[in-house]
Amino acid sequence: MLSLQEISDRLEIQQLFVDYSTAIDRKDFDALDRVFTPDAYIDYRAMGGIDGRYPQIKAWLAQVLPNFPRYYHMLGNPSIRVEGDRAASSVICFNPMQVQLPDGQPQVMFLGLWYHDKLLRTPQGWRLIERVEEKCFDHNVPGGIGTG
Question: For 103-129, what is each residue's pLDDT tens digit?
Fold first, then answer.
């Protein structure tokens, strides 16, 4: 049986996943400061992105994501393992993204991936210290757009 602390930890971590998706989908990149530690390592290479420390990734997201007119991140099946002030998790992400084709027509591509995370309990609450993408699938991706 889960203790109240374990239940609280899991709910807080799940909310962190929602906060991440909301920040990305609303292009509110400063909100990610409440999701990641300042030195977090993030690896988006599996889906055609970059890897690096949080400040570099935050700047890259702000530069790249406005090129996509519409998109969202839908997360599910969180698997969370808490050990004291540290945790590890995996969560599925379904990410449709609209792109503009060279002829000006919109096209929606579909991306499926897992996020594998390491988390740390900080005085401000749980924060991601590592996020690594693992590709599951992509569909309808126009040529010239890398998805790993």
Answer: 999 999 999 999 999 999 999 999 999
In a domain, 122, yes or no: yes
Which residue type, as a one-letter code, is found at position 7? I
Enter the pTM of the model. 0.94
What is the pairing mode between strands 86-100 and 106-122?
A: antiparallel
> Domain range for residue 20?
4-139
- Give the pairing of strands 86-100 and 74-83: antiparallel
In the chain, how many domains are there? Answer: 1
Which amino acid is located at 78 in the chain? Answer: P
Asked if residues 80 and 112 have their Cβ atoms less than 8 Å apart, the reply is no
CATH number at residue 118: 3.10.450.50
- Strand-pair partners of 113: 93, 135
Strand 51-53: give its sheet, edge to edge.
Answer: 51-53, 36-43, 125-139, 106-122, 86-100, 74-83
48-89 pLDDT, tens digit per residue, is 999 999 999 999 999 999 999 999 999 999 999 999 999 999
